Amino acid sequence: MAHHDPGLVPKDILIVDHPVTLLQILGGATGTYIDKALRQKGIHHINVEVQAETRTCTTVLDASTGSMTELIEPTSRITAEERTAFEDRAQSLITTGAGKLRIIALCGSFPNGMDSETFAKIAHQKPDSAFLYLDAVKDIELILSTRKVDMIKINLEEFVKIIRQLGFAGQSGNFFNAIPDLESDESSQREFAVLAKRLMETYHVGLVAITNGPYRAFLFQRGGTGYHTFRIPDLVGILQRMYLANVDLFVEKHTENCLPPTVTLKHRQKMLEWEAENEECLNRIRRRRRLGRGGISPDPVPGVLDREVTDTVDQTDPLIRTKPPIELLLNPLGAGDTTNGVFICEYLRSQDPVRSFAMGLAAATASCLVTDFTGYYDVKIMHAVFSDIAVESHVLD
Predict the structure, then answer these.
(1) Neighbours of 316 (CB within 10 A)
(2) Over the stretch 242-253, which tens digit does the pLDDT of each residue have?
(3) Labelling 276: which of 34, 197, 247, 309 has CA 20 to 30 A away?
(4) In what order do the strands lie in the sheet with 217-221?
(5) Domain boundaries defined on the chain
(6) d(CA 84, CA 114)
(7) Contact (CB, 8 A) for 313 and 245
(8) How far apart are CA 287 and CA 89, in angstroms?
(9) Are strands 151-155 and 131-135 parallel, antiparallel or unpaired?
(10) What predicted TM-score, i.e. pTM, was given to this entire model?
(11) What digits encode the pLDDT tens for the residues 63-104?
């Protein structure tokens, strides 16, 4: 597995008890830091050490607008010998894992000195019994041309770039002059579906999954007559319901499976004022919880992702006149990698791409609530989001 953001995808797979190996290129002080962090997390990884320094990307997130600015360090060129070493290690992993290898995930971009030929070589070596998952954009035609890619997962903007790379956009009129509006423009939706189907048929890709931030996501399956859309639920509404079931939702917690949403000082003050106004009602909810009358179900059994969490407490108290004034501070960094990791581990278990993609989207959505880390999420919130994702089937004309 090659990855541009080391640790996030393997971490999510490891959490549900699937053995995973991360193959990566590392160099310099940053590489040493990454290696140490992966060891601390218990993630099995193989490093191809290079002379070039591993670059970093610093992302500045504007809390008021949600916009991001990325400051990406320049990358040095790896040598031909280092590239060959990476390819040899990949081949060795595939050869020794024959019969046990279930999924190969190729994610991210290449360092200077490496191109899509390396990923194409890995794809060619994939056993027929293994599943090849691709999350990449730049120069991927050679990888797709191997006809070994079982699934590609990208966002809408990346899909447009790929379609342009492959020369499909020439028959699409003005569709690619800008990122299409897939929420309200029905003609764009139809054309979008036709292009996704063409991508699958041309390169024998089994599944094409496309995300679009907080908006609808899409999943296309080759050979099918239609496709599925996934409407992401309103996080504020989910947290309001969860809060009334567990009034300690925003109390700081320190476990990887249970992280509270991040709130601003201004929001904390509003919540304190609201709690003071509704103190009697909230105490009644706490007493009901102590008596076992409702509340959020316990954490899912470790390693199991098929147990939905349901809210069995009354969502409103007769004396609570207003909903909790929840305001969210969101961090979308690492959401795509979280989708990858959770999709993979759920697909390994269920072999159901629709359910697996919905679970990945739910985890990614929940991870946006944690600003101190990337790729971490509260498991209860993930399951609450999963239960509220609206999955719709559509038929291609």
Answers:
(1) 13
(2) 877 766 666 655
(3) 309
(4) 103-107, 131-135, 151-155, 207-211, 217-221, 226-231, 390-395
(5) 234-389
(6) 10
(7) yes
(8) 58
(9) parallel
(10) 0.83
(11) 666 677 888 888 789 999 999 999 999 999 999 887 889 999
